[in-house]
């Protein structure tokens, strides 16, 4: 209550002042220290606010495969944002067009790297050539989920989307003018802009209150204009959002625990207008992908349009069925035992911006991005909360978790996780195995439960895995 009262007092003054020093903010006579009013985070394009909280993550139904890799446990996730629908072909085509326009002439490999693998549709004993040729680019499929995209490509799309949205916000604020002639390294990148390594077509910069300044300045992160990064959701975030338990919660009591993104253990709706229709796009049985002609139950022999079927209680579509979705985590069988209970996630690789010999941020690379490097081990000697940059195999693949420690010593620590997870010999798991969640049009109903989990190498793609983006929520977690 005192914090709110202080905020009211400060905002009632002609110029707000420090509660600890008494000096006024935003005053050139006092040196020009600026404190911007912040009305709260705006919702980025395509996103839905997911109010966080505690939930039971993991298996809540039978485990017919006896894998035991999603044991139930209590976890909490902070409030975040998630795309309302899966990223559609038209969204990815916009990305491809931009990449080709900016890099296609001098760096065609950047465009080639971004292209989805349309050959994922091929099957030696099926006729799928129309999907190979048409699914990505034909306007009939514009609003169908993009597939054939690897985890790496999905992550690259998220980074690109971050910059395009923040550039748009600066244009809307009148800071920059649109610049359709961006080329190669001269393209808007949020971090490069904040570091003073991208100028753009300036319309009107902000007033600089520093009496020793030039009178104007570019936008800084402290101004709250730019949004946080778009990224893939963590496995915990995705599962929490998919369940949508907010619809069954009354005064902190969960009235009906769910195994799907809807109530009940059945797959059909009780909506009077669509009674008996399936709630998600999935494979009903051997050779049955949609039902009988004249009454196709889910209306989709293959992927359906994004936004099809019923949303869950967060307003998210297709969190069960249609396409499986990449999440941020590296796969481990016993993630339920290893990760934290607040914002659980496996995959942290801590990096920092590369600096030159004078300690300044190094020049951006040929693609307009700031250079990054893993935090050196010698800089972490005095740290207590982490001791190495790459924590993917922490407590599951590292020295402390290895049974055959003599083998580890003989091979040396550079062997990484290979002693415990000897990829292609004793295991199909390595540090590049990424989790994907949710059932797809190719899957039976078991995979439509948000608790189920599978993995695939981050460089591979299929005709049934797509993705959606997430974003951190800054400030309050209660959505206000």
User: Please, how many helices?
Assistant: 9
What is the CATH homologous superfamily assignment of the domain at 47-173 and 225-347 and 439-472? Answer: paralog of FGE (formylglycine-generating enzyme)
Q: Report the mean per-residue pLDDT as an integer.
A: 90
Secondary structure class reads alpha+beta
Order of helices and strands: HEEEEHHHHEHEEEEHEEEEEHEEHEEEE
Q: What percent of the residues sit in helical stretches (DSSP H or I)?
A: 10-25%
According to CATH, the fold-level topology of the domain at 47-173 and 225-347 and 439-472 is: paralog of FGE (formylglycine-generating enzyme)
Order the strands across the largest sheet as they lie in space: 1-4-20-9
- What is the straight-line distance between the termini? 16 Å
The CATH class designation of the domain at 47-173 and 225-347 and 439-472 is Alpha Beta
Shape: globular
Name the assembly state: single chain
Backbone CA Rg: 25 Å
Low-confidence stretches: 1-13
